[in-house]
Amino acid sequence: MLAPYRDRARRAIAHARAQLEGKSVFFLPDSQLEVPLARFLAQELGMTPIEVGTPYLHRRHLARELDLLPVETVISEGQHLERQLDRVRAARPDLTICGLGLANPLEAEGFTTKWAIELVFSPIHGFDQAGDLAELFARPLRRRDVLRV
After folding, report:
1. DSSP code string of 52-78
2. Are the C-beta atoms of residues 88 and 19 closer than 8 Å to each other?
3. Assuming Cys at both sites, which of 5, 22, 93, 97 could form a disulfide with 26, CB separation 3.0 to 4.6 Å?
4. pTM of the model
5. Tens digit of each residue's pLDDT (9 = 90 or more) over 109-146
6. Helix (H, G, I), strand (E, B), or coil: what is residue 139?
7. Cα angle vertex 36, ends 42, 29, to 5°?
8. Strands (E), 14-138
9. What Rg, from alpha-carbon coordinates, does the chain have?
10. CA 5 to chain centroid
11. Could you tell me the strand order of the sheet in which 74-77 lies?
């Protein structure tokens, strides 16, 4: 019954998957959407979530999402900014999802970032928006590759 919708979503994310597969991602806490977004990136786009930081984690509500993340994914809750930034710097992820206040300083250090706020205000729910959601993560990497000298 859902197969046609899943097939359409897989076709919609295929271009982004080709660019994102095998890349690493690090989520700094911002919106509480981090866990399901990391699961989407891991399962549907082949990315490796290094750490998924979230402001608050209700383990019972997110149990199914947490179970679908790769075992090696670190889950952190709350704001411990200096320690989290130390871990970002040590991990050197391909993509860092963070708040607006951190994006420019991290970009200045050579990191590729995605503003977490865009994920809150973009229509990214359901099968029909899977391609749009995937593109939100692919765009910063594409921009980095175009700007690389």
Report:
1. EEES---TTTTHHHHHTS-TT-EEEES
2. no
3. 93
4. 0.92
5. 999 999 998 888 777 666 777 888 899 999 999 888 88
6. helix
7. 100
8. 24-27, 48-54, 74-77, 95-98, 113-115
9. 15
10. 23
11. 74-77, 48-54, 24-27, 95-98, 113-115
